[in-house]
Amino acid sequence: MKAKVLTDSGSGLSAKQASDLGIAFLPLQVTVDNQQYLDGINLDIPELYKMLDEGKMPSTSQPPLLMQEELFEDLQKDGYTDLILINLSNGLSGTNATLQATAARLGLNVHTLDIYSTLYMQKYMVLAANQLLQAGKEPEEIIEILKKAVDDSNGYLIVEDLDHLAAGGRLTPLAAKLGGMLKIKPILKVGKETEGKVDAWEKVRTFNKAVKKAAEKIASEVKDDVDNYEFFMLNGENEEGTEAGKQALIDALGKDVVIHTDPMYAVIACHTGLGSVGFQYAPKIEGVNI
């Protein structure tokens, strides 16, 4: 058996970053004004943010089928027999199911799970799987370790641009207008409870109240076990909101808490527009460094 970790750009990794880590990579497709881009190959986060700032309305779709087949054939030529497949949640995309079907057709063994999330949570699971594989763990053992972490993880997303959600069909124009007038900020949730879909959790007036509410909710969920969790924040071009979120987490969890921060990846930024802030957490996995 020869195994390799495979992920998509929902992890926030670029093709080069994944390659440098020895991870196989497939890009999600981003369509803007009828032009298709490959996320993490010919589209990066600053370019996407520039398009969003110009009022563009990107959409996302699965990695190209031809690229999937070519990658799997190349892996087989290199002697790989098994894939540890870590993709964005099945509730957000059919990518995982499509890749499983393609791999099965070509005779590759697949070891996978639904992470019920994406963004930094997906990145963490990918890095963990790769480090555990390099440490000599078997693929199915790795999947079981990741499942335990996924079961005790959660994510919250605070959206600034309600009009962008409405334009993308995820909120009615009337609700967006009323929400804007009342300064309502929806707190969205994604995790196992929501079956990996982005669902409404709470509505709060003002962004600062929303980040405080999300931080307090996370604190109540991890209780007194803070040292055994990893905490992540995603910055959708909202420095002030991200800093407020970090401070809210510190206030709720203690001054020694470590918070890993990344830009909001294309997989979510395409649908929320600029200004969103994300919170995620997951149990620390023994032997894994991020």
Automatic annotation (TrEMBL):
Organism: Ileibacterium valens
Domain of life: Bacteria
Cross-referenced InterPro entries: DegV, DegV_C, DegV_domain_contain
GO molecular-function term, one example from the UniProt record: lipid binding
Family annotation (PANTHER family): DEGV DOMAIN-CONTAINING PROTEIN DR_1986-RELATED (PTHR33434), FATTY ACID-BINDING PROTEIN TM_1468 (PTHR33434:SF2)
Name of the featured protein: EDD domain protein
Membrane-spanning intervals of the chain: none
The keyword Protein biosynthesis belongs to this UniProt entry's keyword annotation: no
The entry's keywords: Lipid-binding
